[in-house]
Amino acid sequence: MRIIDAHNHPDWLGHDFARTLANMDEYGIQRTWLLSHICPRNEHHETYFDNMCGAVLGMTDGPTPFARCLSYAERAPERFILGYAPDPRDREACRLLLAANKIYGAKICGEVKIRTMYDSPDCLRLFRLAGELKMSVVMHFDYDRQTTYKDPWTEWYGGTIHTLERVLQACPETTFLGHAPGFWIHISNDDLWKTNSYPNVEKDKIVPGGEVVRLLRTYPNLCCDISAGSGRMALSRDKQFSKELLIEFQDRFLYARDCFDNLHQELLHSLDLPETVLEKILGGNAQRLVPVN
Ligand SMILES: [Zn+2]
């Protein structure tokens, strides 16, 4: 079975090139989508500087510069697939995406994680170009948790679940991968999104009718990236629900980690999915979106 991790980063969480490869071998992962993360320094949490080394290397194009993705892919081209997303607010963002695709073979437009609404004209222009280039767009969503100016600074990214719907409508030729707390909290039709980034997987059972499910049924250009705690916890709230969801949308869910543990594979194996469905989610769907030998 071909296993592809559809969301990870170089120099991330204490893993350099050698440790990343050893970790992939340990968990039977043939390939990893290596995504950049480019935004102004004041838009991401300062702890990111503990988790990656773009800044240590003097690269301001971060926190995860494309140069680090490229460095990995050049050393092990058979193990990595390049992702690159310029900041859409950069006046030359479209030219940068084209260059990354044409010169370096970047195949995914991601990770988009910036403090702006993803249905802005600048974002939509970039996303439409990504669609023309057959580059799927990986989007990180997070809600603002700062209610007054006295609250500690919090991160928000992308807008709301309604922003995502407008993006899906505006770019029907582009495939989007939903990711992160602001996306996954809407797997359930409840009000948790107003207060929590993450559910309590024991207590917060799924209420059917969540926006994620409605968007999947309505927009064929939406896929799901199950990476990080957000994706894993969403699918752990009600395993019978998750099993049925993954069978219904077996062509639209992608195994992905954004970390270096094996909890996402363990979760998928615990759902008692038909073998053909498991194969698609663990690697077949990623292979379809980005065909490689
Ligand atoms: Zn993310």
Concise account of the structure shown:
This protein is α/β, with parallel strands linked by helices.
Describe it.
By secondary structure, the protein is α/β, with parallel strands linked by helices. The protein is 38% helix and 12% strand. The chain has helices at 17-26, 48-51, 66-75, 93-104, 121-132, 161-170, 181-184, 211-218, 228-234, 239-248, 263-270, 275-289; strands at residues 4-8, 31-34, 37-38, 63-64, 80-82, 108-112, 136-140, 176-179, 222-225, 253-254. The chain has a 5-stranded parallel beta sheet with strand order 6-7-8-9-10. It has a 3-stranded parallel beta sheet with strand order 1-2-5. It has a two-stranded antiparallel ribbon with strand order 3-4. Helix 4 packs parallel to helix 5. It starts with a strand and ends with a helix. The model has no long low-confidence stretch (mean pLDDT 95). The structure holds zinc ion. The site of zinc ion has 6 residues, from loops.
Percentage of residues in strands: 5-15%
Task: Work out the helix count.
Answer: 12
Strand order of the largest sheet: 6-7-8-9-10
CATH C-level category = Alpha Beta
Spell the H/E element sequence. Answer: EHEEHEHEHEHEHEHHEHHEHH
Based on the coordinates given, report the CATH architecture: Alpha-Beta Barrel
Count of distinct strands: 10
Low-confidence stretches: none
Helix percent reads 25-40%
**What's the gyration radius in Å?**
18 Å
Tell me the name of the CATH homologous superfamily. Answer: Metal-dependent hydrolases
Kindly report the CATH topology.
Answer: TIM Barrel
Please tell me what the overall shape is: globular
Bound molecules: zinc ion
